[in-house]
């Protein structure tokens, strides 16, 4: 039983480092600000853009939801959350993947006709 408790304590101590994520972090920046990288204990990276100002940081799911809600309600900004290392650097990949898949589908359809 003691061994089980010690093992659980060791595993619990390792979990935060295993769940860390690398994010770009900067505030009040004009442009894309891709120089400040940090390892975060959060589970997501956030990128918020309003006009020419860009802010990037680490966050959790609640922070993502709050940022998205604020931007949606105000209409003055956009917020994007992601969960892979340095994913808040540039353009979100999901729309790019959709466009790529659509282009590939159209090319295949044209080839088959």
From TrEMBL:
Keywords noted in UniProt: Signal
CC annotations in GO: side of membrane
Lineage: superkingdom: Eukaryota
InterPro entries: Snake_toxin-like_sf
Family annotation (SUPFAM superfamilies): Snake toxin-like
Signal peptide positions on this chain: 1-20
Protein name: CD59 glycoprotein-like isoform X2
């Amino acid at each position: 039983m003691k061994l089980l408790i010690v093992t659980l304590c060791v595993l619990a101590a390792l979990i935060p480092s295993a769940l860390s994520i690398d994010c770009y972090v900067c505030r009040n920046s004009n442009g894309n600000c891709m120089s400040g990288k940090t390892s975060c204990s959060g589970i997501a990276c956030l990128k918020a853009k309003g006009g020419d100002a860009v802010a990037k940081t680490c966050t959790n799911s609640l922070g993502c939801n709050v940022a998205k809600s604020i931007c949606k309600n105000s209409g003055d900004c956009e917020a994007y959350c992601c969960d892979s290392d340095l994913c808040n650097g540039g353009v979100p990949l999901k729309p790019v993947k959709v466009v790529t898949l659509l282009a590939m589908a159209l090319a295949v359809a044209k080839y088959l006709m």
